[in-house]
Structures are given as structure tokens and as C-alpha cells.
């Protein structure tokens, strides 16, 4: 118990004194996970809307694959991205392994199926005839998609939250493809793992608290937007 | 009616869905300014026809012409859809204010904001929902939401409005009020309306012409009076409220009066036919009178039959009395008449109806 209390005390000191390294790790985590979420929202929402609105043979199989992807273990993603970016791998010539870009790629791979799956569900949950009604109002296909996305904005915000939550908190893939290099690819989760294994619980607790606060703050903002929009 | 210009035509319209022929319309013309009701039971193809005419479903074959211009489902669908409007059974409002919902079609067309404001305010007033303009569409009652949906369609000043059973999910007083207001709007705007309904009362009230649909085809099209009084077949007859449709053979015909043999009974009807001709006869229950005396004294009806009451079923403000006269017959009576007559199931009564109340349905090839 003392260990925890002491850890929390030291963590608060580190937080409020603005430790340079912690600040750097926090900002890098935000940048990389934010960018990965943006990429996954771009790809996942487009794919989700397309799949949700179209009827094609094998759609159920595709949706099942996406849903399976929503639970993709980060270490599996880390392994695949590592193999791809390995010096002798297919994309080895790009020299991306153990760089922040590699972390963004791995995190985007983790978040994309989450965003896609929730988007498909959100679009399919809209009333069946709404698409026809919007077309009957004279909408072009693009206008129709835009109105449908606006209609599904509450569950789509949940998709953004789930995507961000999935990547900011993952450690396996970031560690494997980023290498936890100090000042370069060290993010909140990988640093927490490292400090815990070294027995630096105060620092690990400080990093854990920041991670929690960060996740809470981002989700609070998105939830406020979502609830402000909620039908009353 | 015949002098009216045709606004919409469909030729050889066919649509297959899941390998099944969902629609097969040889020809349909909609006249400018008319209200055409598509009636028929659930699954008869009314909604499919409306969706196809609104260019929301692509027919397997056939042609649709608006004001003489053929619709190309690939290249001119958007232009076409911007000339029409459609209201569904569910209001299908967007998650925004009432004002924005009514404005959405105009915004999609790129109409300037000040023109939108004026047009939307007019439409809201027309459907008596001006006070709801700033309300969220999600907070509206069913009737209010359907008014918004109608305002959203009429604000576009479309050449045709397609209505797909817009009143069917409303309670009777709300439906009555909405039909009343819609009647006024139609009269004021003279908009051409094609609406689907399985409610013949709605069709009679709003429509100039009526198309009866069954299995994806139009089996009779005419003025509401024609269809109601001269149904082409047994299906139409039963659908337009002729509870009794029986087979008969013309026994004799003279000077416009036919004597038709129905299950060994003779029924007098008005019309011309050849003796021996087989036909169907229909009698509306509201034209059948019941009496407990064998020879009703104050009746000029030529058809008088002793009957046994087989069933009495309440139908809102009146009762439907099913009778066995040797052939089936039905009559509508009020609750008060039922009490006065003192009849119940198994009672013996005398059923009578005039020769003019007998509708002849000729058997068609």
C-alpha cells in the first residue's frame, strides 16, 4: 500500500513540475494515436459507409471479417507490421521499422476495423427507407451519403472514440514496431511497461495516470459533443 | 377528365425482385392535376409501383415519361427526382429542426437561403405546423411528423407527389384532420397526386381515379365511381366492399331487367344479357335491408328472401350481419336497428334489396 501511495505522490510531483521527458512522451502518444485514429476514421468510415449501403454477394462474410478484425490482438498486428517493415521484408526498403511512422501504421491497422465495424452497424441501423427518402428529395449520391453520415453521427462519434481508445491504450504493437526508443518512439504505454519492469513504480504510476487522464479528456470532449446532439 | 393533359406515362413496366415478377404494368397514364389512388391489399405492388414511378427502383424493362420526356434511370434520374416528391408511410425526418427538415430538399437543389426561408414558412403554415418550426423533429407526435413530411414534399412545388400510405400509422382523429388538410392543400395547389392505400375510404375521399392492383398488375383503372359500381372481377368487387359476390346464370332478360338464377333462387337485376350467360353478381351490404316480417310492407325491393342470421360482427358504428338465403348475403345494420329487430345468430329474418342494388360483373377472358 505504501508503494502505491508513494508512487502516486511522486507521480503528482512529476506531473505538476512539468517533467520534460514525460511531456515529450505524452505529446508523442497524442500525435501518433491521433494520426492513427484520423487515418482509421478516413479509411474505416468510407469502407463502413460503402459496405453498409451496398448489397453484394458475400457481404455477410465481409462484415464477419470486419467484426473479427475489431478484436484483432495488437501483438498479431505488431508481428505482421514488423514482418512487412523488416529489412528483408516486402516494405523493408522504406526503412520504417522502429520509427514513429511504424507505430502509426500498426495503430491504424488496429483501429480501422473497429471504426469500419461500428460505421457499418451505424449505417445499417438507420431506417430502411431513409436512403430512398433522401434520394426522392433530389439528392445526388454524394449528398445522400453525407446526409446519412450526418444522421448516424452519434454512433459514428462512438466509432471515433472506440478507435482512439483502442490505439492510445495498446502496447504490444507499438513496442514491437517502435522499439520504445527514448525520445523517438517511446509512448505512454511502452514507457509504462518499461518503468514497471525496472521497478520505477512512481514513474509508471505517473505515466498510467496521464494515460487515463488523456483518454478520459478525449472521450469527455467527444461524449459532450455526442450528448449535446442526442435527441431529447 | 379526358381533356386533361397526361403528365406521367408508364409503358410495359416490369420489375423483377429476387427472381419474382414484382410489377407488370402494360400502360398507366396519370393526368395533370388529378389524384390517382393505387389500391390493393398488402403485397399487391402499390409501393413497388410508386417507388418505380419515383425513379427509386429501376425497372427491368419498360418506359416512364414525365411530360413526354423519357426517364433514363442512369443519366436523368436526379433531374427527374427533382421534379417529383415522395412521402413514405413513416415520416423519415432528419435529426434536425422542423424548419431544416422542410428546407432540406430546397437546400439540396441549391436554392438561395432567403427563398428557402419564405418557401418553408409558407409550407409550414399550409400544414398548420408553423409553431413547430424550431422544434427538434425527434420530439414530434406521429401526426405532427407526417405533417412535416408532407410540408417537405409540397415545399418543392413538385409536378407530382407520390404518397405511400401516408396515413396508415396514424390514429383515426389525427388521420381525419390530416386528410382534411391535405384535401385543402391539393385543391389549392392543384398538385398531381399518386397515392397508395389499402383503405378504400381514403381512396374514395381523395381520389379522382382509382387503380386496383393485385399481384403487381393493375386489374382495373377508372374513376372511383366506375370502379366502385362496376368492378371488373370478383377480386375488385370484394376489395371495393361488395361483401357478397356470387355466381349466377341469366334465366331471362327483358326490357333492361334480368332474372338471374343463383343457387336455385331468382334475383332481379338491372342490365342487358343473354339468357344462359354466366356472370357474377355483387350486392353491397349497405343496400340490403332486414325485416322480421315475411313481406316487408314498405319496401319496393324486387328481391326478397327468407334468411337465417349466421353471424353478427361489430364494424365500428354498425354491425355486419352475415346471412344464409340459400346463397350468402351480408347486411349492415346499426346497433339500434339490431335491438329493434331483436335478432341474433340463428334468427330468421327477411332480407331484401332492389334490382338496382345488384352489380353485374361479367366474366372476362
* Sequence of secondary-structure elements of chain B: EEEHEEHEHHHEHEHEEHHEEEEEEEEHEE
**What's the rounded overall pLDDT mean of chain A?**
92
* Strand fraction of chain B: 35-45%
Give the radius of gyration of chain B: 24 Å
CATH class of the largest domain in chain B: Alpha Beta
Q: What's the Cα radius of gyration of chain A? A: 20 Å
Q: What do you see in this structure?
A:
The complex is a heterodimer of chains A (232) and B (365). Helices cover 77% and strands 0% of the residues of chain A. Chain A contains 11 helices and no strands. In chain A, α4 (74-85) crosses α5 (100-124). The longest helix of chain A has 34 residues, at 20-53. The mean pLDDT of chain A is 92. In chain B, α3 packs parallel to α5 (142-154) and α4 packs across α5 (142-154). The model of chain B has no long low-confidence stretch (mean pLDDT 92). Chain B has 2 domains: 3-238, 3-Layer(aba) Sandwich (Rossmann fold); 242-362, RNA polymerase II/Efflux pump adaptor protein, barrel-sandwich hybrid domain (OB fold (Dihydrolipoamide Acetyltransferase, E2P)), CATH 2.40.50. Helix content of chain B is 26%, strand content 37%. In chain B, strands 6-7-8-3-9-10 form a 6-stranded mixed beta sheet, sandwiched between helices. In chain B, strands 13-12-11-14-20 form a 5-stranded antiparallel beta sheet. Chain A binds chain B through residues 127, 129-130, 132-133, 135-140, 143, 147, 150-151, 153, 229, 231-232, and chain B through 51, 54, 56, 78, 81-82, 84-86, 88, 90, 92, 94-95, 104-105, 108-109, 136, 138-139, 152, 156, 162.
